[in-house]
């Protein structure tokens, strides 16, 4: 078969795959919870570990938070980080320089953007500033994972992890703690996967399982006409699938855990962009995601922004499980 026909066949397969992704059904909002007690309020990740919600702030290098969700206002309780500085991940010099500059401008260099846990309760935090993963185990001391030496080079060959503030934005782990998925944020976005081998993490064949560029239309209520780059702002592994939080498109998508290809998406644009939750900005604020049988929890990184009612607290929004379930075709 000629290269021309091979290329046409690949385009046809991609087109068929895209056509099978149904139009995004709107999720139904169940409740919303303001969060108090975070130092800066930059809620950037969410995980339910052994019945307790945990979160990270992308401005705090020395602590993350357990969330008391027993009341209508969630209370954040600081949990210290004592693992020392992250190891080198092979980031190019210019990105390392931008991290240092950002420290003086906004504070913090580690830039925690995601948190997850395995069934044993071990917690994993991903650093965007250093492209590193911190393990906080149930037993033992905190430590930085030994990631593959060739991970950064493979990502760069796919156009991933090449721009400042567009590195790792989400992390998920298999229930047995033997496989990790990392979400590369944007320009280009992608999903990388690693497997545990002794005390190290390795790639099987290619570290990069999914990568793509392009743009996405913006919901009209956002008030920005031009499309934004497609992105991932968080990710969770649930029932054998990966669920990605896609901030610019204001949607959650179910994806294959083997290929990263989208199978179905659900929108949260109507409720998040309603006037009562309006923020004076032209980008999405959804930064944190948790999925289980009770629905979806989406956390907002509001920074210093205030809603129309003047509230500057970060929020977690609870959406009901879709009527046909998360496994619906």
TrEMBL record:
Residues of the signal peptide: 1-23
UniProt entry keywords in alphabetical sequence: Signal
Record keyword Signal present: yes
Domain of life: Bacteria
Claim: DNA-binding is one of the keywords in the record: no
Domain spans labelled Phytase-like: 41-187
Transmembrane segments: none
This protein's name: Phytase-like domain-containing protein
């Amino acid at each position: 078969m000629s290269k021309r026909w091979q290329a046409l066949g690949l385009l046809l397969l991609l087109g068929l795959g895209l056509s099978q992704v149904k139009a995004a059904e709107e999720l139904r909002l169940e409740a919303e919870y303001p969060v108090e007690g975070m130092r800066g309020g930059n809620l950037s990740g969410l995980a339910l570990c052994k019945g307790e919600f945990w979160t990270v702030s992308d401005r705090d290098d020395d602590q993350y938070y357990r969330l008391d969700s027993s009341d209508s206002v969630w209370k954040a309780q600081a949990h210290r980080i004592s693992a020392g500085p992250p190891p080198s991940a092979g980031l190019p010099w210019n990105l390392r320089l931008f991290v240092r500059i950002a420290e003086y401008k906004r504070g913090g260099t580690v830039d925690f953007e995601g948190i997850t846990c395995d069934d044993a309760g071990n917690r994993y935090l991903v650093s965007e500033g250093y492209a590193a993963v911190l393990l906080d185990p149930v037993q033992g001391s905190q430590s930085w994972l030994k990631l593959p030496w060739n991970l950064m080079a493979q990502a760069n060959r796919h156009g991933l992890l090449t721009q400042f503030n567009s590195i790792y934005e989400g992390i998920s782990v298999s229930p047995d703690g033997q496989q990790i998925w990392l979400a590369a944020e944007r320009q280009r976005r992608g999903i990388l996967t690693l497997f545990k081998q002794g005390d190290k993490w390795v790639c099987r064949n290619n570290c990069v399982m999914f990568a793509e560029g392009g743009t996405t239309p913006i919901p009209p209520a956002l008030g920005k006409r031009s499309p934004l780059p497609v992105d991932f702002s968080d990710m969770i592994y649930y029932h054998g699938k990966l669920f990605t939080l896609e901030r610019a498109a204001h949607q959650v998508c179910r994806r294959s855990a083997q290929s990263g290809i989208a199978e179905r998406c659900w929108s949260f644009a109507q409720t998040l962009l309603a006037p009562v939750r309006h923020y004076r900005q032209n980008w999405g604020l959804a930064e944190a995601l948790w999925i289980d049988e009770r629905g979806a929890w989406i956390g907002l990184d509001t920074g210093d922004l205030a809603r129309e009612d003047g509230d500057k607290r970060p929020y977690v929004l609870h959406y009901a499980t879709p009527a046909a379930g998360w496994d619906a075709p």
